[in-house]
Amino acid sequence: MKVYTVHIHPGDAEPMENAILIREGFNFWAFLLSGLWALYHRLWLGFFGLVVVSILCSLAVMFFDGGPEMDFALALVTGIGFGLIANDLRRRKLAAQGWKMTDIVAGTTQSDAEHRCFERLTISKLRVPQMQQTTISTPSTGSPSYP
């Protein structure tokens, strides 16, 4: 089972309509296509961080007179490291934009996790009765007061 975090934007009329599910753990596509993945998800600082780390790795290979093996090893370690933190970078970006993490769900696929999330939401709406807004007029002013 894969675990996902559910993020919603509180300003939306129907927040679950535009919910974003982000998988926990290692991101294979961020490992394989690090820079392109960061640009696709508009993680500008992550992309520039990758560029800086890549330049530092190239300088280390030149300084220590390493061959292609050292260059490959450093690129592999950089890719693995970015694959490990990529989903966390997306979560931080969403939090900075005002999105709220509302739930953690598990499922065999992302669509299964979405289904469980919506199912859980409808069950919670059924369990919690909606409070009715009643207006009570006060004797002195005749205007409604709201509890």
Outline the fold blueprint.
Blueprint: E1 2-8, E2 20-23, H1 28-32, H2 34-40, H3 44-63, H4 68-96, E3 100-107, H5 110-127, E4 136-137, E5 144-145
Antiparallel strand pairs: 1-2, 1-3, 4-5
Helix pairs in contact: 2-3, 3-4
The coarse overall form would be: elongated
Helix content: 40-55%
Determine the mean pLDDT: 86
SSE topology string: EEHHHHEHEE
- Strand fraction equals 15-25%
> Ends: how far apart?
45 Å
Task: Write down the Rg.
Answer: 24 Å
Structural class: alpha+beta
Strand order of the largest sheet: 2-1-3
Number of helices: 5
How many strands appear in the DSSP assignment? Answer: 5
How would you characterize the overall build of this protein?
- The model has no long low-confidence stretch (mean pLDDT 86).
- The chain is elongated and about 65 Å long.
- The strands form 2 sheets. A 3-stranded antiparallel sheet has the order 2-1-3. It has a two-stranded antiparallel sheet with strand order 4-5.
- Strand 4 (136-137) and strand 5 form a beta hairpin.
- By secondary structure, it is an alpha+beta fold.
- The chain has helices at 28-32, 34-40, 44-63, 68-96, 110-127; strands at residues 2-8, 20-23, 100-107, 136-137, 144-145.
- 54% of the residues lie in helices and 16% in strands.
Short note summarizing the structure:
This protein is an alpha+beta fold and 147 residues long. The protein is built from 5 helices and 5 strands.
